[in-house]
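Entry for the shared binder. Reason: the reviewer on the internal report wants the predicted structure included alongside the sequence.
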Amino acid sequence: MEYQMSTAATDYWWWVDGLYMVMPVMTKLYHVTSNEMYLEKLHTYLTHANSIMYDEESKLYFRDAKYVYPKHKSANGKKDFWARGDGWIFAGYAKIIQDLPKNAKHKQEYINRFKDMAKALTAVQQKEGYWTRSILDPEHAPGPETSGTAFFTYGYLWGINNGILDKATYLPVVEKSWNYLTQFALQADGTVGYVQPIGEKAIPGQVVDKNSTADFGVGAFLLAASEMFRFVK
């Protein structure tokens, strides 16, 4: 990591999944090493990623440059934001905010972005509690999806538990999504269903049902459950 940071390159993070993979590693390595460069390079790399993927109008992230509107559109001509992709970054912000020192230089910027995403996601939650695979176009790939919904639930609960998100505003969002996760996605045999398979986008016609499960979906479910435990404790 320190070799990478010693180079002049800033374009390491060009896809949204990568932000979840690496941002929390950098904040944790900062705590291990006390090397401030981890926090500065995190901001430099994230600024580059935002220039590619972040949509200022919608307050959401495209998966990568291939999906930026209007070059790419959903089935109904809308901006196509992939639920699991935005789940990765929403959860990623929660993880780095909690790791950053109290007076970290860029912390408030990350908190503001996290809060903007929380507000934007609330407006497009389905009445059943889940988010569809293409967040702004439910008809693009209709039906429930668990991995994105679980990451969002984790982020909302973490925000409430840490006083960053207003409980009165966002607990109703969590109540609906948690009900979906535990009463619909979680199956009688303990498996977590309705997880979109490995991919990078919402795919029209792709079957996602109670038998669709994957480790990353279970992991997201457990992240949400860990914060629900802290909430009710």
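Summary line for the report: Helices lie at 2-5, 16-33, 37-53, 83-99, 107-122, 146-161, 167-185, 215-232.
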